[in-house]
Design goal:
Blueprint (H helix, E strand, L loop, with lengths): L14 H8 L10 H8 L4 E3 L8 E2 L9 E4 L2 E6 L14 E6 L2 E5 L7 E9 L8 E9 L7 E8 L9 E5 L5 E5 L8 E9 L2 E6 L7 E4 L10 E4 L10 E10 L5 H12 L6 H10 L13 E5 L10 H15 L3 E5 L7 H4 L4 E5 L8 H12 L3 E5 L10 H7 L2 E7 L4 E6 L15 E4 L2 E5 L7 E6 L18 E8 L2 E6 L11 H14 L27
Parallel strand pairs: 17-19, 19-20, 20-27
Antiparallel strand pairs: 1-16, 2-3, 3-6, 4-5, 5-16, 6-15, 7-12, 7-16, 8-9, 8-15, 9-10, 10-11, 12-13, 13-14, 21-24, 22-23, 22-25, 25-26, 26-27
Helix pairs in contact: 2-3, 4-5
Length: about 550
């Protein structure tokens, strides 16, 4: 019988090597969570500006919109060091401009667009009205008239150090806003044009520092961008720039906030977390596979990219390799959601996938894959998926509606069925976990076999905003057609990946969805005799 494979797109190489070499980056410029989220937001061009030499900035989107770097510039200067902008234990790099610019042609860009970039200004020369342009969009190479321009004000109207916009027809509109930018400090600027409306957002705030109207003077089609100056060689910016992304749509204030949050989200793993995870992994399979198995891991996340995604990818890949229970492949896109591709796999893992925007054909392919006997595992944020697809929510078993148990807390966990094959890893004892715990809608014990849940006998778990029935599952299984579904909500923080019990629980869940480990999936409410749960000990 031909075997399906479970798709995991991460190759079995150390993450620090994989991210640099597989994505064409210089060493030390590996992706962090911020870069992943920017790419998943589908810009038309994205330049990380960490290349160590040469006169070209590589477009990370794959669209080929490489930018030219005009001297004089210094390569590999130290960029913003927020943890979300860096790879594993690496320094983020940038360009230092001392009269040079970055220029790019972005054909067919419309009048609705956004620019997102990081900058660090040198002390400005306030004797000029504009002391430096962060970026300028111009109609074409020959034109010296800027259609949209953003820069620092100098001596004009006593506004030195404020960021301002100038643009529209004949640059008739001009407005600036605070706060005053202190020299040698890093900031994230987002420019948004939506028709005539122009807004500037600073450092993730959802209230713009500039909100005005200006005619969209650039015709839809050809447009040239200058970063660090203008096309007429005036107003050169002195300082550093990094992480420039251009979008062919207007970013929402919510997207602006989430992108900036991603730059400093506290649960980003470092190399030591990967090492500790590897030391905690199961060394053998609970049961011998009945046949060769392959898993597909999908990790595309929109809106928010959980920094533990690479940690989970690596954990599952190594689990399969060490125990010989399965092989893995990893993919970051939607293209695998096609019948002919899914047919090659035994099961699919949704690793913290969120806010998917998939077609009706892709929805049908995934749900029919499971109904026909394929396995499905979902991790943590995967229940953030399928807001527009009730059938998909039912397939997963629940839909995230909040996390009253925040990621900075430690919460009591009970084992609902200590003797269940997928719960034996816990040794008949509840525990405490430092993680973010979800609350669900759609969830019901009438349809699901609940394995692990919050221990609501503990006062620490009695937070505001919980369900009226005080029933908050953490992991469950259920049959869906001929297929098997396993969900585990742990995995926002790194702590669950250092816990041998949790990792063993996940391995057993994988072996169950593959059809190798036998376990009863009768819904909890339908059991003739309710099992005696194992509660958490007193708070450590």
């Amino acid at each position: 019988m031909r075997t399906r494979a479970l798709l995991l797109l991460v190759a079995m190489v150390p993450p620090a090597i994989m991210t640099a070499t597989a994505r064409g980056l210089e060493p030390g410029q590996e992706d962090g969570p911020y870069s992943h989220l920017v790419l998943n937001s589908e810009p038309v061009a994205y330049w990380r500006l960490g290349e160590s030499e040469g006169d070209r900035a590589f477009d990370r989107t794959g669209a080929g919109h490489h930018a030219a770097i005009e001297p004089p510039v210094a390569h590999s200067a130290e960029g913003p060091q927020e943890i979300g902008l860096r790879g594993l234990d690496t320094a983020n790099r940038c360009l230092r401009l001392s009269g040079g610019r970055v220029t790019a042609e972005l054909p067919n860009l419309g009048t609705d667009y956004s620019v997102e970039m990081w900058f660090c200004a040198e002390p400005p020369d306030n004797t000029e009205p504009v002391t430096g342009c962060l970026f300028t969009r111009e109609a074409d190479k020959a034109s010296a008239a800027a259609c949209d321009s953003v820069g620092f004000r100098g001596d004009s109207d006593g506004e030195a150090g404020l960021i301002g916009f100038r643009g529209g027809e004949l640059a008739a509109t001009s407005q600036c806003g605070g706060p005053v930018i202190e020299p040698k400090t890093w900031h994230c600027l987002v420019f948004v044009r939506r028709g005539r409306q122009v807004q500037l957002f600073l450092d993730g705030a959802t209230k713009p520092i500039v909100d005005t109207e200006a005619a969209a003077a650039c015709p839809a089609g050809g447009a040239r961008f200058y970063f660090g100056g203008r096309g007429d060689d005036a107003a050169r910016f002195a300082g550093m720039i990094d992480e420039i992304a251009v979008y062919d749509r207007a970013l929402s204030p919510g997207e602006v906030r989430m992108h900036h949050l991603q730059s400093y989200y506290p649960h980003t793993p470092v190399q030591a977390d990967f090492r500790k995870m590897e030391e905690s992994l199961p060394q053998r399979a609970t049961v011998k596979p009945k046949q060769s198995r392959t898993l597909l891991i999908l990790d595309r996340a929109n809106g928010f990219y959980h920094p533990t995604i690479p940690l989970a990818n690596r954990a599952i890949a190594l689990m399969g390799e060490r125990t010989e229970a399965f092989q893995t492949s990893v993919d970051h896109g939607y293209a695998m959601l096609a019948p002919e591709r899914l047919a090659a796999f035994d099961a699919v893992v949704l690793n913290n996938t969120s806010n998917w925007r998939i077609s009706d054909e892709q929805k049908k392919a995934l749900i029919e894959f499971v109904r026909a006997g394929g396995g499905l595992m979902a991790i943590h944020g995967a229940t953030w998926n399928f807001a527009d697809w009730p059938e998909g929510q039912e397939m997963l078993g629940g839909r995230l509606i909040g996390h009253p148990w925040h990621d900075d807390g430690t919460w009591a966990v009970k084992i609902d069925e200590p003797d269940h094959p997928l719960c034996r890893a816990f040794g008949g004892e509840g525990f405490w976990v430092h993680d973010e715990i979800y609350m669900f809608t759609v969830f019901s014990r009438e349809r699901l076999r609940v394995l692990v849940s919050l221990d609501m006998t503990k006062p620490a778990n009695q937070v505001k905003g919980r369900r009226d029935d005080n029933d908050h599952a953490i992991s469950w299984i259920h049959q869906y057609g001929k297929g098997r579904v396993f969900y585990c909500s742990l995995g926002n923080n790194v702590a669950p990946f250092h816990d041998r019990r949790v990792l063993q629980h996940q391995l057993d869940g994988i072996q169950w969805i593959l059809g190798d480990l036998s376990a009863d999936a009768t819904p909890s409410a339908q059991l003739a005799t309710q099992p005696q749960p194992a509660f958490a000990p007193k708070r450590p």
